[in-house]
Amino acid sequence: MKPQIQMLDLSAQHRKIQREIDEAIRGVIDTSQFINGTAVDEFARDLATYTGAQQVIPCGNGTDALQISLMAAGLQAGDEVLIPAFTYVAAAEAASLLGLVPVWIDVNADTYNMNVEKIEAAITSRTRAIIPVHLFGQAAEMEAILQIAAKHHLFVIEDAAQSIGASYSFSTGETKQCGTMGDTGCLSFFPSKNLACFGDGGAILTNDSRLAARLKMIASHGQSVKYRHEIIGCNSRLDTLQAAILRVKLRYLNDYNAARRQVAACYHQGLRAYSNFLTLPVEKSHTTHVYHQFTIQVKNGKRDALKVYLQEKGIPSMIYYPLSLPEQPVYANANVNTNTNTSAAAQAIVAKELAASVLSLPIHTEMDDEQLCYIITQIQTFFN
């Protein structure tokens, strides 16, 4: 009998900590502090301790965190923001909503992250910010990105929605967590994330106290004192129930990430001999990988056939992402790099190739040896 396999098994994870979760929820209900309750401040303090960030501003979701960060940077309509061409749409969407211009930076084929060698050629007189995305759980090349940003006076917003708990080591020996290296770091607590709540939730990290004050004002209708609105803001809050749940789950985050790394290690061991057919995720020596996704590249145009085969065998898989951002319909007629007079799509060759070949395999904290063995065996059978 084949095992039951899910892309993500939140129910099994929840059962192990259900008593603690129930107590946390009951505490919020007993106080009826559903908005801006004490659990929100307590979670912010716990998260600051965990990440090493000096300031944590909870908010409604990860996309809000990106938009609020861009608003806090003081950018003007028409300013350009550098964004990796292969990632989820959230960063580009947040920029577009503010009248900013997304400029695509192609990515590295091995890590899926922004190719730092492509950045400076894309910088123009209108470039004001850069959003490195730590995709699938591994840090982008932050040392080089920060050096380029300092040289060109760019505001750095880390999209760390998929990488909480991952770290990056600089050439100096200093190590920092994803989300704590730029001007701001943006987190998402969407249910599928490594640290997940029971709905939507997000947070912004920063080490700048003045910037933190501005971020808090923007997230609260532009007010620092109730009913005194000093700047244009928005309404983005992490509700107290979600904060209470996240406080509990944060205690287990290191264990969750370790479990994901163990699953990834099994995939690497079982599939490394199939390099003629697959490219496995690469772990850089100066970063840690927390495997929000285990994303392979399927060679020779066999990705879709493998996906269908796995589905027939009861194994789910996902394509993150089937289109690069320059290929998305909403951006199909978007910018041309004024430095090179080259279309955005033409500059994102690797991103386009990845969109045609990537496939993410099941990975979560509750996977067992039987499930992993079955998945690996079926993949081996397909190629054999």
Structure commentary:
- The chain is of the alpha/beta class and 384 residues long.
- It has two domains: 10-250, Type I PLP-dependent aspartate aminotransferase-like (Major domain) (Aspartate Aminotransferase, domain 2); 253-383, Aspartate Aminotransferase, domain 1 (Alpha-Beta Complex).
- 37% of the residues lie in helices and 16% in strands.
- It has helices spanning 10-16, 18-31, 38-51, 62-72, 90-97, 119-122, 142-152, 209-219, 240-250, 253-271, 303-312, 349-355, 369-383, and strands spanning 55-59, 80-84, 101-105, 127-130, 155-159, 167-169, 175-177, 184-188, 202-206, 223-225, 228-229, 278-279, 294-298, 336-337, 342-343, 358-361.
- The protein has a seven-stranded mixed beta sheet, with helices on both faces. Strands 12-13-16 form a three-stranded antiparallel beta sheet, with helices on one face.
- Helix 3 runs parallel beside helix 9.
- The longest helix has 19 residues, at 253-271.
- 45% of the residues are buried.
Rounded mean pLDDT is 96
Task: Identify low-pLDDT runs.
Answer: none
CATH homologous superfamily descriptor of the largest domain: Type I PLP-dependent aspartate aminotransferase-like (Major domain)
N- to C-terminal distance: 22 Å
Helix content: 25-40%
Q: Any guess at the CATH architecture of the largest domain? A: 3-Layer(aba) Sandwich
| Radius of gyration based on Cα positions | 21 Å
Strand content: 15-25%
